[in-house]
Amino acid sequence: MSTSPELLTGWGRTAPTRARVHRPAADAELAALLAGANGRGAIARGLGRSYGDAAQNAGGDVLTMTGLDRVEHFDAERGVLTAGAGLALGELARVALPQGWFSPVMPGTSHVTLGGAIAADVHGKNHHADGAFSAHVESFELLTPAGGRLTVTREQDPDSFRATAGGMGLTGVIARATVRLTRVESDRAVVDTERARDLDDVMDRMEREDAGYRHSVAWVDCLERRRLGRSVLIRANHAAAGERPAGAYERGRSLAVPPGIPGGLLAPLTVRAFNELYYRRAPREQRGRLEPLDSFFHPLDGVRDWNRLYGPRGLLQYQFVVPFGAHETLRAILERLAAERRPAFLAVLKRFGAGHGMLSFPSPGWTLAVDLPAGDPSLRRTLDAFDEQVAAAGGRVYLAKDSRMRPELLEAMYPELPAWRAVRERLDPERRLRSDLARRLGL
Amino acid sequence: MRDALGTVESVLVLGGGSEIALATVRALVAGRTRRVVLAARRPQELEAVAAELRAAGAERVAVVAYDADDVQSHAAVIGEAFETHGDIDVVLVAAGVLGDAEAAEHDGALAAAVLHTNFTGLASSSVAAAERMRAQGHGTLVVLSSVAGERARRSNFVYGASKAGLDAFAQGLGDALHGSGVRVLVVRPGFVHTKMTAGLKAAPLSTTPEAVAEAIVAGLAGTAHTIWVPGPLRYVFSALRHLPRPLFRRLDL
Predict the structure, then answer these.
(1) pTM score, whole prediction
(2) What would the pLDDT profile of A263-321 be if each residue is shown by its tens digit?
(3) Smallest CA–CA separation between B53 and chain A, in Å?
(4) A347 - beta bridge partners?
(5) CB-based contact (8 Å) between B9 and chain A?
(6) Cα(B132)–Cα(B129) distance, rounded to whole angstroms?
C-alpha cells in the first residue's frame, strides 16, 4: 500500500482540496485504514469521474480503491460476477463480453468502478428498460465503522442496501460486489439515429417508441433558440447472434487532450459551431447501423482527459430529473440556457424508470444533463434558479454530478433523506465517513 | 465548503470593524455564506452588525475579541474560532491602521506601532490562520494589502512600508501553501473612501468598500493570487514602480 498527500478534484477540476490518499493493495488493509482515519474521516474513491467533490475529503483520508479490482468469481453460466470494488466497468465488459455477458448498466464512461457505480447508483441509456446499477447487484460487502464488515443483500438488510445504493460512500466502504450481468449475443449494438426538429418532436418520439429500444438517448442542442430542443435521437438494441458473435470489448481510438489549455475555448461561438456541425452530420434518419458496444456507449472515452478542454477553472455538469408531467420545467430550463447563450456542449436527454436507493438519483421522469464551463460567475444565479424550479416540480439534481447546488433544497429533492440519515446513524454514528460533498451539503 | 463556482459557506474576519471587511461580509451573506465570525478589538461594537447579518440570512454570526497587536494570542484566538465554528472557507485579514503619517515620520515609536499592527500583527495572524486551513485541507486566506505597498510614497511611507512587508509576506505564504489546498489572495486596493481615510485627499482611481468587496467575491471564484481594485491600478503602479527616484519624488504623491 502507498500513501501520499494529494490535491484532489473531481472530473470537473473545480474546488481542489488536499487529503492523505491511500492506495490499499489488499482487502485486509481497508479496515485498519477506516479505523485509523483522523477526525476528518475517510471516503472511498474510484476513478474520479464524479464531476464534483463526492470523492474528496479535505484534510482527511481518501482510499483509492482501484488496486482492489480482482475478478474473484465469474459464473459464465448464470452471468454472475464477483469482484473487488475497484474493478472498472470497462474491464468488467472486457472480461465478460467474450463469454456473452455485458454490464447490466453502462454509464457514459467506462471508467467507473463497481464501488462507484453502487455508491452513485449510476444509470445508463437503458434506465427506462433496466433501472439503475443497484437493481442488478445481488450483494456487496460493506465495511462500516459501527457494524464491521457486512454482507448486504436487498432481501436480508434492505435498509443498508437502499442507503448504500446512491449513498455516495457515506454508509461504509464497499469492498466487493456481486452483480448479475446482461446476456448479449453480439459485441455490437443495432443503432437507429434520427434528427428531431424540436423539443416536442423528440419527447414525442421517445414517449411513443422508447419501449421498443433497450438503449435510448437524445443529444440536445442547447444553443438553438428558434427550434428549441432540436436533437439527435440515438437508440439501440443489442445485436442478435446471427449478426456478429460476441467478441472483444474494443478500445476505441485514443486521443488525449494535453494540459495547459487556457479557459474560454468553449465559448458560445465555438460550441454553437460544434453543435451545428453535430446536428448536420447526423443522418436525418438511419436504421440498423451496427456499432461496437464500446464506441456506442462511450464516445467520449476515445478522448483522454477531455475535461482539460475547459481550462483552469474547469467545468460542471448540471443534471436533473423532473417527473413526466413537468414538461414545462424542462422547457423553461432549456429556454433559459438558450436565451443566456450558455456554451453547453450537447446536452443529454433521457427518460427514467423507477428508482431504487434512498438517495438514488433516478426517479420516473425526464433527465437532462448539461456540461458548462465553471469559469463564468453569472452561472451561479442561473443554476440556483434551476434548483428551485427542479425542486418545485418534484425533481432533483444528481449528487454524483453536483458541485454547487443549494444545500437548503436537498431535503425537498431527496424526500428519503431522513430515512437515509437514520441508517447512516446506525452504521456510522461517529461520522468516520466524510467527504467534501457531505460537508458542503450537510449530508 | 467552497463550491465549484467559488461560493463560500463560512468566513472569519480578522479586523471585523473594517469597512472593507464588512462590505465583503455583506456581499458574501447576500450570496450563500451562512456562518460568519467577526473578530475585532472591540467586539461589543459589532453586535449591531451581527444582528444585521443575521437578518440578511446568516445562520450563525459570532463576534469574538481579537487584537492584531497581541501576537501571543493569535494562535489561540484563531484556533478557537476554527474549533468552535467548524471548517472556515475564507479568512479575511482586514485589520490595520493608517497612523498619523507626519507624526510617524518623526517619532520612532509611532512608526513602530504602525509597522507592528500592519505587518507583524497581520503576519502572525496569517500564519495562525494558514496553519488551521492547512490542517483542514482547504480554504482561502484573503489578505488586504494596498497599492501603497507597491512603492512607498513620500506622503505615507510608513503605512506603505507596512503594506509592502505584509504584501511580500502574503505572497511568500501563498507560495508556501501551494499544493496544500489553501490559497492566498492578495488584494491591493487604491484609495478607498472610508472613515479611516476621511479628510484625506482622494487619489485618482479612488474606490469604495463595496467595489473592493465585489472584487474580493469575484476573486474568490477565480484562480488569481493578486487583485487590484480598481483593476487598472495594476498597470498604473507597474509603471510607477519603475519611475526613476527624482521623477517619482517630483510627482508628490
Answers:
(1) 0.94
(2) 777 777 888 888 888 888 888 989 999 999 998 998 888 788 888 888 889 999 999 99
(3) 18
(4) A220
(5) yes
(6) 5
